[in-house]
Specification:
Blueprint lengths: L2 H7 L1 H23 L6 H28 L4
Protein backbone atom coordinates (compact mmCIF):
# COMPACT_ATOMS: atom_id res chain seq x y z
CA UNK A 1 0.00 0.00 0.00
CA UNK A 2 1.15 3.53 -0.68
CA UNK A 3 2.85 5.15 2.32
CA UNK A 4 1.06 8.49 1.80
CA UNK A 5 -2.30 6.73 1.85
CA UNK A 6 -1.36 5.02 5.13
CA UNK A 7 -0.30 8.35 6.63
CA UNK A 8 -3.56 9.96 5.54
CA UNK A 9 -5.73 7.18 7.01
CA UNK A 10 -3.96 7.17 10.37
CA UNK A 11 -3.22 10.88 10.77
CA UNK A 12 -4.63 11.46 14.27
CA UNK A 13 -2.79 8.67 16.15
CA UNK A 14 0.41 9.34 14.23
CA UNK A 15 0.23 13.02 15.14
CA UNK A 16 -0.18 12.07 18.79
CA UNK A 17 2.85 9.77 18.74
CA UNK A 18 4.94 12.35 16.88
CA UNK A 19 4.00 15.01 19.43
CA UNK A 20 4.99 12.69 22.30
CA UNK A 21 8.33 11.99 20.62
CA UNK A 22 9.08 15.68 20.08
CA UNK A 23 8.08 16.44 23.69
CA UNK A 24 10.43 13.78 25.04
CA UNK A 25 13.31 15.06 22.88
CA UNK A 26 12.71 18.63 24.07
CA UNK A 27 12.59 17.45 27.69
CA UNK A 28 15.84 15.52 27.30
CA UNK A 29 17.54 18.54 25.71
CA UNK A 30 16.32 20.88 28.46
CA UNK A 31 17.44 18.44 31.13
CA UNK A 32 20.84 18.10 29.46
CA UNK A 33 21.31 21.88 29.35
CA UNK A 34 20.46 22.32 33.05
CA UNK A 35 22.17 19.20 34.40
CA UNK A 36 24.52 21.24 36.62
CA UNK A 37 21.58 22.37 38.78
CA UNK A 38 20.24 18.89 39.54
CA UNK A 39 21.69 15.86 41.22
CA UNK A 40 23.25 13.19 39.04
CA UNK A 41 20.64 10.60 39.98
CA UNK A 42 17.77 12.90 39.06
CA UNK A 43 19.33 13.70 35.68
CA UNK A 44 19.92 10.01 34.90
CA UNK A 45 16.36 9.12 35.90
CA UNK A 46 14.89 11.97 33.83
CA UNK A 47 16.98 11.13 30.77
CA UNK A 48 16.12 7.44 30.96
CA UNK A 49 12.41 8.19 31.33
CA UNK A 50 12.60 10.61 28.41
CA UNK A 51 14.31 8.11 26.13
CA UNK A 52 11.91 5.39 27.23
CA UNK A 53 8.99 7.62 26.24
CA UNK A 54 10.71 8.34 22.92
CA UNK A 55 11.20 4.62 22.28
CA UNK A 56 7.59 3.83 23.14
CA UNK A 57 6.24 6.60 20.92
CA UNK A 58 8.46 5.53 18.00
CA UNK A 59 7.42 1.89 18.37
CA UNK A 60 3.76 2.90 18.59
CA UNK A 61 4.16 5.12 15.52
CA UNK A 62 5.53 2.30 13.39
CA UNK A 63 3.06 -0.23 14.78
CA UNK A 64 0.15 2.07 13.96
CA UNK A 65 1.53 2.88 10.53
CA UNK A 66 2.23 -0.64 9.31
CA UNK A 67 0.40 -3.16 11.52
CA UNK A 68 -2.19 -1.03 13.34
CA UNK A 69 -5.92 -0.93 13.08
CA UNK A 70 -7.68 -1.71 9.82
CA UNK A 71 -9.97 0.94 8.44
Amino acid sequence: MDILHLLYDRAIPLTLFTTLGIFSLMFAYALYKTKQRFSKGLVIMGMSMSFLLLLISAASFFFTLFIGYNS
